[in-house]
């Protein structure tokens, strides 16, 4: 079959919402875009474990420790499903990791900010996982089968993460003045970086148009950001906290909240490697990879031994 015909059949499938599977023909650009997006997502999960793992030993009770531990383990699992989904596109996991370590591959900007207090665990669960759910639930309908299926379980677990975060915030806000202040401080620091998670404005997003056509993205960055603001403001009101945006106000005509200008200079600075914790995060991932070399060697040696036994 000619490439034109293959492409036509592929486009028909996309139009009819038929999932694309690993052995199906796909345009090279579709494959590359998926590898970029899925691997960035996988890296985000793995790097995202770092700022929270930092708080497991300092969580204020056994119950909080158990929940934090479970959340961080879930994120390791999400990374693994996503790396596996990526491997179905014909890339090696080691190459993906090499790209993360060299700085060639991106991961979410949000994980380049420090976690300074216990309230940050609440704010991350509430806002960061809340933003992740907003972005990822539509991806359960992504056109590429392995990605969409991975996303179903990821979203279920993210929903537990969001609730545990919000419950931490509720507890702090119902506590002493000092605890409420801690919660407000965490909201002040995490609000704007959470809005940045959705990526540049639609006008500046170079991939959105094509990715929407391919069903790799289902909503634009600005659409998702607006949905997030709209659901999150009433939650902040229940907590009795103030969102740090003087331009925030309900717009009756639009039926949405209006909100202030994001500091895009900060965003582009963070995604180009110059955020407050970029170096620390990549150094930690490189160290974990190097420290795990003996495990990979042992697993490979065992696999070889087993294969030889089978032949003999
Ligand atoms: N951080 O054309 P655009 C999570 C890059 S949540 C860093 O709009 P696209 C978690 C973008 O890669 C986070 N880089 O791109 C939560 C592109 O650069 P390249 C992970 C960003 O791909 C809690 C350039 O900017 N979620 O995992 O159409 C606990 C232009 O942007 C960011 C996902 O990855 C950013 N925030 O849209 C633990 C979800 N935003 O590659 C873990 C799946 C943009 O051309 N991904 N860039 O050099 C997506 O939905 C999309 O990839 C994005 C960006 C909306 C993130």
Write up this protein:
This protein is an all-alpha fold and about 300 residues long. It has a single domain (about 5-310), classed as Up-down Bundle (Ferritin). Helix content is about 70%, strand content about 0%. It contains 12 helices and 2 strands. It has helices spanning about 5-15, 30-55, 60-85, 95-100, 120-135, 145-175, 175-195, 210-215, 220-240, 265-275, 280-290, 295-310; strands at about 250, 255-260. Strands 1-2 form a two-stranded antiparallel sheet. Bound molecules: benzoyl coenzyme A (BYC). Benzoyl coenzyme A (BYC) binds near residues 48, 197, 200, 208 and 271.
Task: Give keywords.
PaaA_PaaC, mainly alpha, 312 residues, phenylacetyl-CoA 1,2-epoxidase activity, 2 strands, 12 helices, PaaA, Ferritin-like_SF
- Tell me the name of the CATH homologous superfamily: Ferritin, core subunit, four-helix bundle
Please give the largest β-sheet. Answer: 2 strands, antiparallel
Domains counted in the coordinates: how many?
A: 1
Indicate the multimeric state. single chain
**Strand residues, percent:** under 5%
| Rough outline | globular
Structural class per helix/strand content? mainly alpha
Order of helices and strands: HHHHHHHHHEEHHH
């Amino acid at each position: 079959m000619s490439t034109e015909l293959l492409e036509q059949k592929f486009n028909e499938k996309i139009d009819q919402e038929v999932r694309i599977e690993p052995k199906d023909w796909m345009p090279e650009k579709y494959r590359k875009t998926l590898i970029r997006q899925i691997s960035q997502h996988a890296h985000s999960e793995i790097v995202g474990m770092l700022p929270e793992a930092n708080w497991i030993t300092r969580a204020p009770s056994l119950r909080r420790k158990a929940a934090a531990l479970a959340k961080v383990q879930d994120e390791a699992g999400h990374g693994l499903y996503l790396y596996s989904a990526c491997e179905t596109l014909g890339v090696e996991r080691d190459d993906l990791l090499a790209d993360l370590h060299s700085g060639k591959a991106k991961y979410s900007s949000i994980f380049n900010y420090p976690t300074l207090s216990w309230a940050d665990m609440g704010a991350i669960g509430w806002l960061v996982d809340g933003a992740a759910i907003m972005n990822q639930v539509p991806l359960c309908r992504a056109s590429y089968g392995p990605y969409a299926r991975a996303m179903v379980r990821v979203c279920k677990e993210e929903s537990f993460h969001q609730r545990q975060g919000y419950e931490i915030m509720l507890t702090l806000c119902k506590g002493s003045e000092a605890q409420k202040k801690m919660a407000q401080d965490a909201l002040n620091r995490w609000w704007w970086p959470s809005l940045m998670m959705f990526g540049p404005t639609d006008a500046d997003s170079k991939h959105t148009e094509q990715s929407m056509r391919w069903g790799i993205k289902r909503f634009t960055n600005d659409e998702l950001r607006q949905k997030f603001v709209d659901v999150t403001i009433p939650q902040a009101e229940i907590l009795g906290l103030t969102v740090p945006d003087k331009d925030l106000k309900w717009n009756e005509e639009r039926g949405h909240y209006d909100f202030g200008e994001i500091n895009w200079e900060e965003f582009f600075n963070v995604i180009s490697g110059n955020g407050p914790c970029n170096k620390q995060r990549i150094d930690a991932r490189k160290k974990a990879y190097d420290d795990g070399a003996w495990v990979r060697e042992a697993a490979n040696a065992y696999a070889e031994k087993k294969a030889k036994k089978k032949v003999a």
